[in-house]
Predict the structure of 5-methyltetrahydropteroyltriglutamate--homocysteine methyltransferase.
Amino acid sequence: MTNVISSNLGYPRIGEKREWKRALEGYWNKQLSEKELIEKTDAIRLANLKKQKEIGIDLIPVGDFTLYDHVLDTSAMFGVVPDRFNYDGGKVNLETYFAIARGTENAVASELTKWFNTNYHYIVPELENVTPTLTENLPLKFYKEAKDKLGIDGKPVILGPITYLKLSKGYEEKDFSNVLQRFIPLYVQLLKELEEAGASWVQIDEPIFGTNLPKEVIQEAKQVYEQFHDAAPNLKLILQTYFEHIIHYEEIIEFPVQAIGLDFVHGDSLELIKQYGFPEDKALAAGVINGRNVWKADLEAKIDQLETIYQAVKNKQLIIQPSSSLLHVPVTKESEVQLDSDVKDGLSFANEKLDEIVTLTKGLQSGKQSISNALKVNKQELEQFNRSTHRNNEIVRKEVEALGISDAQRSLPFAKRIQKQHELLQLPLLPTTTIGSLPQTQEVRKTRTKWRQGTITDAEYEQFIKDNIEKWIHIQEEIGLDVLVHGEFERTDMVEYFGEKLNGFGVTEFGWVQSYGSRCVKPPLIFGDVSFDTAMTVKESVFAQSLTDKPVKGMLTGPVTILNWSFVHDDVPRETVQNQIALALRKEIEALEANGIKIVQVDEPALREGLPLDEKKQKAYLDAAVYAFRLATASVQDQTQIHTHMCYSEFQKIYDAIDGLDADVISIETSRSHGEIISTFEENTYEKEIGLGVYDIHSPRVPDKNEIKQNISRALKTIPTEQFWINPDCGLKTRSEAETVGALKAMIHAAEEIRKDQLAYQK
């Protein structure tokens, strides 16, 4: 077959060993100059491009690299800088760029929220009082760099205007058209300059088309792309979608672009093509390799799928690519020397996925026979992986099959059990707590590494953890917190830690992916049936509780988040795996309760994240998520208080699910949203207890007491005092000891003053 080429949508930014992260943090810590930061990150970016060229990718993306976030890059390129950062026009310098992302002593950072239904976070653009202008053509800069330094005729990647504006804030929905028109000339200028520079293909990312947009927005979008076509007629534009099929498929495939990128892993793109066809004048960019998971593709099945897709492409121009950018997966599995060989053979990280794409491209160009050896090896490795030990556990499968509605119900309704909890806990009005983790200092990380390397003994490491727990229990008591935490010093990550202790999981050594900014996580691998082995958190929680008369929370990660933040093999339904995890956590919660822990927090920061983009699929997802959480938590006694925590989200979409979790106390990450989430609780009556994060932990700035009082007071206008808890936005793992203590003291002082005012008012 002719006219078949390979492509990539985006490459991991962080480097094989997180070199990007270290460069950024070195700059923030003033260990690197701006010049040194640029030199180091330039080297990483060029190495990424060179690797893709060596693998054999035809269309290599340029402009997908960033110093923090690609949405923030788009904002900086268009001069979208909030007033509080004192921007006076022109190219946005690094100081302002990072200030928007991380905040300053005098200005809070811009809101951070999830990139569609992934664990990647982007910086939300703020359009209020902004006059956009093209400050710097970043795609052009990176296109020229790739061409001049590496001889690569790259494919510039641009975040499309519809997606960019729909992800922004600072304007009324009714004003969308007017705001859009202010940005179109900037995009037109950008595209014209790329055309003049000789660019062939340009990828315009519009993942928002996988959501249920109003028809009038689709009509406006078509007009926008007509302007793009007229302005740069020699550019070949790829309208790239991912994470879901296109909801308004019939309309969007008629846009005047040269190619449409579809996700054939998530959603029903193939069914849409079969039903409605595909236009004769366009190439189809087929995302057949999963860009969001790490398991080896069945190449035989993928070739068959591609042949079916190819038959629908009338002009026979096919581009083979991942389903999305590969920023959601680690760089390469080659560094994984500790993994079981069967599991490793079943893996495919970014580099390996690109190898798969090149192989499939060759197979379609020259026929299956040309890749017969690759197909044979692939089949053998998949068969070996499927025969791997610990993949199948009939006991837990039968347990899940036997579950019913009653297994996920507390014995008493909230209104009755909360009275028993109040009698037992004897907490003051507006109780204070933290979300869970405390600073993971360099000493903590180094000591853990020594222990893993065998440099120190188990006993020495355990004593080190105990010393840190004891130190921070005393600090929390001195600060004046009401409900304490043990600090999670023994945990590398809130999901990986449990992956190391549950059956059916595996963990990698270098399987890092970016979550936000320089923050990277290492998702565990779920390759088999999940089951409980032995207590995972009881020892540390019980030790912490023995040091104080105040309640110490047991800290667990919930089943939905463990699932969403793991790389899950897809041969078992996700709902089944989720319930297996819930059953394992249920046993851990029962063990905590049996050992005297009165409050157990089961965090679900990823519940909203996993919500399908297609509204038709959302109810089934939320119903399954609620059931799994309740399955994990429902067996406790009435007096045991269940907490949960959630991260930035559009909570109005999942309000009923939040209520349905039946947690006694929920804390929500809200400070960067500037109180907007409070409106959800203005529109609904929430009867359980709640803490809306009163300061932002993602920023190194220490808030003052009055700022926190203002956040608390704003919440108390909507939420009754008797229901309200006071806590930071999220865990404090990434903050220094000084930042943590300073911020918590300010929080306690604010809480004490408001508590005093409230008690006086009640009298």
Remarks:
- Residues 5 and 759 are 70 Å apart (CA to CA).
- The mean pLDDT is 93.
- The radius of gyration is 26 Å.
- Residues 737-762 form the longest helix (26 residues).
